[in-house]
Amino acid sequence: MGVEQGIREQIAADLAQAEASATAIDRPSDAHPDLDVVDAYEIQLINIGKRLDAGAKVAGHKVGLASEAMQKMMGVDEPDYGHLLDDMQYFEHTPIDANKLCLPRVEVEVGFILGEDLPGGGCTYEDVIAAVAWVVPSIELIDSRIKDWKITLCDTIADNASSCGWVLGQQRIPLSEIDTGDIEATLLRNGEIVAKGNSSAVLGHPLNAVSWLARKVEGFGVRLRKGDVILPGTATRAIDISPGDHFVADFAGLGSVTLDFT
To answer: Which residue ranges make up each domain of the chain?
Structure first.
Protein backbone atom coordinates (compact mmCIF):
# COMPACT_ATOMS: atom_id res chain seq x y z
CA MET A 1 0.00 0.00 0.00
CA GLY A 2 2.31 2.72 1.25
CA VAL A 3 1.82 6.38 2.11
CA GLU A 4 2.54 9.60 0.21
CA GLN A 5 5.78 11.52 0.56
CA GLY A 6 4.20 14.28 2.64
CA ILE A 7 3.20 11.74 5.29
CA ARG A 8 6.69 10.23 5.26
CA GLU A 9 8.16 13.67 5.88
CA GLN A 10 5.71 14.41 8.71
CA ILE A 11 6.48 11.11 10.46
CA ALA A 12 10.21 11.79 10.08
CA ALA A 13 9.77 15.24 11.62
CA ASP A 14 7.73 13.83 14.51
CA LEU A 15 10.38 11.20 15.25
CA ALA A 16 13.20 13.76 15.06
CA GLN A 17 11.36 16.03 17.49
CA ALA A 18 10.69 13.10 19.83
CA GLU A 19 14.40 12.26 19.91
CA ALA A 20 15.46 15.89 20.42
CA SER A 21 13.02 16.42 23.28
CA ALA A 22 13.25 12.90 24.78
CA THR A 23 9.46 12.79 24.63
CA ALA A 24 8.05 9.63 23.04
CA ILE A 25 5.17 9.77 20.57
CA ASP A 26 2.30 7.49 19.61
CA ARG A 27 3.28 4.93 17.04
CA PRO A 28 3.00 6.18 13.45
CA SER A 29 1.52 2.89 12.26
CA ASP A 30 -1.65 3.56 14.26
CA ALA A 31 -2.31 6.88 12.54
CA HIS A 32 -1.17 5.54 9.15
CA PRO A 33 -2.15 1.85 8.80
CA ASP A 34 -0.99 1.81 5.15
CA LEU A 35 2.61 2.47 6.26
CA ASP A 36 4.85 -0.26 4.83
CA VAL A 37 8.48 -1.33 5.17
CA VAL A 38 9.64 0.69 2.15
CA ASP A 39 8.00 3.80 3.62
CA ALA A 40 9.70 3.09 6.93
CA TYR A 41 13.20 2.85 5.44
CA GLU A 42 12.59 6.01 3.42
CA ILE A 43 11.50 7.81 6.62
CA GLN A 44 14.68 6.61 8.31
CA LEU A 45 16.71 7.96 5.40
CA ILE A 46 14.97 11.37 5.57
CA ASN A 47 16.19 11.89 9.12
CA ILE A 48 19.63 10.41 8.45
CA GLY A 49 19.98 12.75 5.45
CA LYS A 50 19.13 15.78 7.57
CA ARG A 51 21.70 14.81 10.18
CA LEU A 52 24.34 14.31 7.49
CA ASP A 53 23.49 17.72 6.04
CA ALA A 54 24.02 19.16 9.54
CA GLY A 55 27.54 17.72 9.68
CA ALA A 56 27.24 14.17 11.02
CA LYS A 57 29.02 11.32 9.21
CA VAL A 58 28.03 7.68 8.73
CA ALA A 59 30.19 5.59 11.07
CA GLY A 60 28.53 2.24 10.43
CA HIS A 61 25.31 0.26 10.57
CA LYS A 62 23.37 -1.91 12.97
CA VAL A 63 21.22 -4.99 12.46
CA GLY A 64 18.12 -5.37 14.59
CA LEU A 65 15.77 -8.31 15.14
CA ALA A 66 18.65 -10.65 14.34
CA SER A 67 17.56 -13.46 16.66
CA GLU A 68 14.78 -15.93 15.93
CA ALA A 69 13.11 -15.01 19.24
CA MET A 70 12.98 -11.31 18.35
CA GLN A 71 11.68 -12.03 14.85
CA LYS A 72 8.89 -14.20 16.25
CA MET A 73 8.01 -11.50 18.76
CA MET A 74 7.68 -8.93 15.94
CA GLY A 75 6.01 -11.34 13.50
CA VAL A 76 8.71 -10.97 10.82
CA ASP A 77 11.00 -13.34 8.96
CA GLU A 78 14.07 -11.16 8.49
CA PRO A 79 16.05 -8.59 10.48
CA ASP A 80 15.98 -4.82 10.04
CA TYR A 81 18.75 -2.24 10.02
CA GLY A 82 19.66 1.26 11.10
CA HIS A 83 22.47 3.77 10.64
CA LEU A 84 25.22 4.52 13.14
CA LEU A 85 26.40 8.13 12.90
CA ASP A 86 29.59 9.52 14.41
CA ASP A 87 27.58 11.76 16.74
CA MET A 88 25.91 8.65 18.20
CA GLN A 89 29.14 7.17 19.55
CA TYR A 90 29.54 7.00 23.32
CA PHE A 91 32.75 6.25 25.19
CA GLU A 92 33.78 4.17 28.17
CA HIS A 93 34.20 6.20 31.38
CA THR A 94 32.08 9.07 29.99
CA PRO A 95 28.67 8.73 31.66
CA ILE A 96 25.48 9.23 29.65
CA ASP A 97 22.69 11.46 30.94
CA ALA A 98 19.73 9.06 31.05
CA ASN A 99 17.29 11.97 31.25
CA LYS A 100 18.11 12.93 27.66
CA LEU A 101 16.71 9.61 26.41
CA CYS A 102 13.17 8.20 26.25
CA LEU A 103 13.34 4.59 27.48
CA PRO A 104 16.88 3.34 26.83
CA ARG A 105 18.01 -0.27 26.86
CA VAL A 106 21.40 -1.95 26.60
CA GLU A 107 22.29 -4.73 24.14
CA VAL A 108 25.45 -6.85 24.11
CA GLU A 109 27.01 -7.28 20.66
CA VAL A 110 30.09 -8.80 19.02
CA GLY A 111 31.06 -5.82 16.87
CA PHE A 112 33.03 -5.72 13.62
CA ILE A 113 35.15 -3.07 11.94
CA LEU A 114 35.49 -3.38 8.16
CA GLY A 115 38.94 -3.27 6.60
CA GLU A 116 37.53 -3.22 3.06
CA ASP A 117 34.32 -2.16 1.31
CA LEU A 118 31.72 -4.92 1.00
CA PRO A 119 29.92 -5.73 -2.25
CA GLY A 120 26.18 -5.08 -2.24
CA GLY A 121 23.53 -7.36 -3.71
CA GLY A 122 25.72 -10.41 -4.15
CA CYS A 123 27.57 -10.19 -0.83
CA THR A 124 28.45 -13.61 0.59
CA TYR A 125 29.67 -14.98 3.90
CA GLU A 126 33.10 -15.37 2.28
CA ASP A 127 33.10 -11.70 1.21
CA VAL A 128 32.49 -10.72 4.83
CA ILE A 129 35.36 -12.88 6.09
CA ALA A 130 37.65 -11.19 3.57
CA ALA A 131 36.48 -7.68 4.51
CA VAL A 132 36.29 -7.70 8.33
CA ALA A 133 39.48 -6.36 9.87
CA TRP A 134 38.69 -6.43 13.57
CA VAL A 135 36.34 -8.01 16.08
CA VAL A 136 35.55 -5.72 19.00
CA PRO A 137 33.48 -5.94 22.20
CA SER A 138 30.55 -3.56 21.98
CA ILE A 139 27.34 -2.40 23.60
CA GLU A 140 24.51 -0.92 21.58
CA LEU A 141 22.31 1.59 23.33
CA ILE A 142 18.79 1.35 21.92
CA ASP A 143 15.94 3.75 22.62
CA SER A 144 12.44 3.93 21.19
CA ARG A 145 11.02 7.34 20.40
CA ILE A 146 7.64 5.57 20.42
CA LYS A 147 5.74 5.25 23.69
CA ASP A 148 6.48 2.25 25.91
CA TRP A 149 8.34 0.33 23.18
CA LYS A 150 4.95 -0.69 21.76
CA ILE A 151 6.19 -0.86 18.19
CA THR A 152 5.50 -2.65 14.93
CA LEU A 153 8.24 -3.47 12.44
CA CYS A 154 7.51 -0.33 10.41
CA ASP A 155 7.63 1.86 13.52
CA THR A 156 11.06 0.67 14.60
CA ILE A 157 12.54 0.85 11.08
CA ALA A 158 11.30 4.43 10.66
CA ASP A 159 12.87 5.20 14.06
CA ASN A 160 16.35 4.19 12.79
CA ALA A 161 15.78 0.63 14.05
CA SER A 162 15.42 2.08 17.58
CA SER A 163 19.13 2.84 17.60
CA CYS A 164 20.52 5.46 19.93
CA GLY A 165 24.26 4.90 20.13
CA TRP A 166 27.06 2.50 20.76
CA VAL A 167 30.29 2.10 22.70
CA LEU A 168 33.30 -0.02 21.75
CA GLY A 169 35.77 -1.67 24.11
CA GLN A 170 39.52 -1.21 23.72
CA GLN A 171 40.29 -4.70 22.40
CA ARG A 172 40.76 -5.37 18.69
CA ILE A 173 41.17 -9.01 17.64
CA PRO A 174 41.70 -10.12 14.02
CA LEU A 175 38.79 -12.15 12.67
CA SER A 176 41.12 -15.08 11.92
CA GLU A 177 42.03 -15.42 15.61
CA ILE A 178 38.56 -15.90 17.12
CA ASP A 179 35.47 -18.00 16.38
CA THR A 180 32.87 -15.24 16.26
CA GLY A 181 30.09 -17.82 15.84
CA ASP A 182 30.57 -19.15 19.39
CA ILE A 183 31.33 -16.36 21.85
CA GLU A 184 29.77 -16.47 25.29
CA ALA A 185 28.62 -13.02 26.41
CA THR A 186 27.65 -11.84 29.90
CA LEU A 187 26.14 -8.51 30.91
CA LEU A 188 26.57 -7.22 34.45
CA ARG A 189 24.61 -4.29 35.89
CA ASN A 190 26.08 -2.83 39.06
CA GLY A 191 28.04 -6.04 39.56
CA GLU A 192 25.10 -8.42 39.11
CA ILE A 193 24.67 -10.69 36.08
CA VAL A 194 21.48 -9.62 34.27
CA ALA A 195 21.87 -11.36 30.89
CA LYS A 196 23.82 -14.17 29.25
CA GLY A 197 23.94 -15.30 25.65
CA ASN A 198 25.99 -16.70 22.82
CA SER A 199 26.83 -15.03 19.52
CA SER A 200 25.33 -18.01 17.66
CA ALA A 201 21.89 -16.52 18.50
CA VAL A 202 22.57 -13.85 15.86
CA LEU A 203 21.24 -15.48 12.64
CA GLY A 204 23.19 -18.62 13.55
CA HIS A 205 26.44 -16.67 13.16
CA PRO A 206 26.92 -12.89 13.36
CA LEU A 207 28.79 -12.85 10.04
CA ASN A 208 25.52 -13.98 8.43
CA ALA A 209 23.98 -10.76 9.70
CA VAL A 210 26.73 -8.72 8.03
CA SER A 211 26.27 -10.34 4.61
CA TRP A 212 22.46 -9.96 4.92
CA LEU A 213 22.97 -6.29 5.79
CA ALA A 214 25.23 -5.61 2.81
CA ARG A 215 22.67 -7.16 0.44
CA LYS A 216 19.70 -5.40 2.05
CA VAL A 217 21.02 -1.84 2.13
CA GLU A 218 22.06 -1.80 -1.53
CA GLY A 219 18.40 -1.46 -2.51
CA PHE A 220 18.28 1.85 -0.62
CA GLY A 221 21.45 3.23 -2.18
CA VAL A 222 23.61 2.40 0.84
CA ARG A 223 26.92 0.48 0.91
CA LEU A 224 29.07 -0.87 3.74
CA ARG A 225 32.46 0.81 3.56
CA LYS A 226 35.99 0.34 4.87
CA GLY A 227 36.18 1.65 8.43
CA ASP A 228 32.48 1.12 9.15
CA VAL A 229 31.46 -0.27 12.52
CA ILE A 230 28.94 -3.09 12.10
CA LEU A 231 26.77 -4.19 15.01
CA PRO A 232 25.21 -7.48 13.86
CA GLY A 233 22.60 -7.94 16.58
CA THR A 234 22.48 -8.76 20.25
CA ALA A 235 23.62 -12.03 21.82
CA THR A 236 21.35 -11.45 24.84
CA ARG A 237 18.00 -9.89 25.62
CA ALA A 238 17.88 -6.11 25.90
CA ILE A 239 18.10 -4.70 29.44
CA ASP A 240 16.39 -1.54 30.69
CA ILE A 241 18.61 1.07 32.32
CA SER A 242 18.14 3.39 35.29
CA PRO A 243 20.12 6.52 36.17
CA GLY A 244 23.29 5.55 38.03
CA ASP A 245 23.63 2.14 36.39
CA HIS A 246 27.10 0.78 35.59
CA PHE A 247 27.19 -1.93 32.90
CA VAL A 248 30.01 -4.28 31.96
CA ALA A 249 29.68 -6.59 28.96
CA ASP A 250 32.18 -9.48 29.03
CA PHE A 251 32.92 -11.57 25.95
CA ALA A 252 34.84 -14.86 26.25
CA GLY A 253 38.16 -14.49 24.41
CA LEU A 254 37.33 -10.98 23.20
CA GLY A 255 37.44 -8.71 26.24
CA SER A 256 34.95 -6.32 27.77
CA VAL A 257 33.30 -2.91 27.42
CA THR A 258 31.66 -0.66 30.01
CA LEU A 259 28.85 1.90 29.91
CA ASP A 260 27.70 4.25 32.68
CA PHE A 261 24.60 6.39 33.21
CA THR A 262 24.03 9.42 35.40
So the answer is: 5-261
